[in-house]
Amino acid sequence: MASSTYHHFGVPTSVKSANETYLEGAKVYITDPEKDPYRVEYLRFDADSPMPVELRTKPHLAMMVPALEPALEGEKVLLAPFDATEELRCAFIMRGDALIELVQKRK
Q: How do strand 40-45 and strand 5-12 relate by DSSP bridges?
């Protein structure tokens, strides 16, 4: 895989956080990791969230990659690429028991 850099650490939680953003399609409230000194993102899922159980229950490491498609080659893709924001395109993979989010800047 081409070079990658740390983007954030995601933690599922049941505790409401200040300044959450609701992602309707995923039925999840998220915080902005860029506003946390250690770049931690908290994710609070609705009970009927359609997201994979691994994403709803496991912490994840997010890495910025130059391009998603090459980074996904040969990986066990848990959640196919999607547009998370106007700037970021993401996908989730499993490497053994580790949940990893791959993030690509679109602009």
A: parallel
